[in-house]
Amino acid sequence: MFLLNCWYVAAWSHEVQGTDLLSRKLLGEQVVLFRKESGGVAALVDRCSHRFAPLSMGRREGDCLRCMYHGLVFDGQGECVEEPGRKRPSSGIAVKSFPVVERYKQIWIWMGDPALSDPSLVPDCHWQDDPNWRSIPAYIHYKADYRLILDNLLDFSHLSFVHENTLGGSVSIAETKPKIEVTDSAVKITRWYKSEPELAPYLRGVTDLEGPIDRWNIYELFVPGNVFNMDSGSAPAGTGAPEGNRVAEALQFHAVQIITPEDERNAHFFWAYAHNFNLESSNLTERLAARIQEGFEEDRNFIEAQQKVVDESGDDPMAYIFVDAGLTHGRRLLASLLAREKNINVDA
């Protein structure tokens, strides 16, 4: 159900600071994250090898973590380096560790084969710490299958209805046929809404832009790690935005949304909504984040309600309609990658 050999976001960097320990379930496995005294981050299974006490109830000591049940000390690679009462620790008491990379204000973790954990495979999310963009790190917990969240992200027709008074605002979103491109690891969807009569509701009052606009959502889901990058914005109608001309008056945004499964029925949703104008206005950044949060809470309410119905529906199949092309490609690509990974593991 989960791809293992890819980078997932385990936490925002600010969630793991000082001597604090963060315990979080990722892909069905409880993990403890801690920042070493040297500044790096380590990730261990949150279970002492001795009596299975949670290591997150322990304490950080230098670059190590001490279990506070019987005092065993584990380093960042999971090796036991101290056992009270012995000069050398007993054999066979190491705990599982996970490769970690800290990048783009996030802590990325590799839950699969450590030998395959190439840091260059971390997806590009530079907008989150690029000085030419401003955003606020945010998080939402979902009580839902991560695949339902991916479906939602690949189907922007729902903006016309779920987000009628927030992120959407126009029925033309649902009526617009998108351009869909599929690669061996991603689904990219391009949607243009030309000559919209006004800005989307969430942008009203945060800009002086008035009158008809050309609006766009160009979004790509990188399936390994469930990383969703979206270029979006609004420009005065007829100023050439569809041809690539972003005039000074255009409002440009880049959203990064990343879904890490917690288990089969819960998920972590990490997001940031960056803008590249009025960078000196922290108030603008905060107002935008609050309005996007409102829209995302609308999604969460719908998807969690949907999950309850899915659980009650047994094997009854869902119907598919015209707007499902994007999410259908996403599901097929995920299934293909899961099958490929399974075959690789079987062959190994």
Write a concise synopsis of the structure shown.
The chain has 348 residues and is α+β, with helices and mostly antiparallel strands.
Mean pLDDT: 92
Kindly state the percentage of residues in helix: 10-25%
CATH class of the largest domain: Alpha Beta
Do you know the CATH topology of the largest domain?
Naphthalene 1,2-dioxygenase Alpha Subunit, Chain A, domain 1
Query: Assembly type of the shown chains?
Result: single chain
Helices, by number, come to 4
Radius of gyration: 22 Å
Number of separate domains = 2
Beta-strand fraction estimate: 25-35%
Characterize the overall form: globular
Q: Identify low-pLDDT runs.
A: none
Give the total of beta strands.
17
CATH architecture of the largest domain: Alpha-Beta Complex
Specify the structural class: alpha+beta
**Whole-Å distance between the termini?**
19 Å
List the helices and strands and how they pair.
Blueprint: E1 7-12, E2 21-26, E3 29-35, E4 41-45, E5 59-61, E6 64-66, E7 73-74, E8 80-82, E9 100-103, E10 106-110, E11 138-142, H1 146-153, H2 172-175, E12 179-182, E13 186-196, E14 213-222, E15 227-236, E16 251-263, E17 266-275, H3 282-312, H4 325-347
Antiparallel strand pairs: 1-10, 2-3, 3-4, 5-6, 6-7, 7-8, 9-10, 11-17, 12-13, 13-14, 14-15, 15-16, 16-17
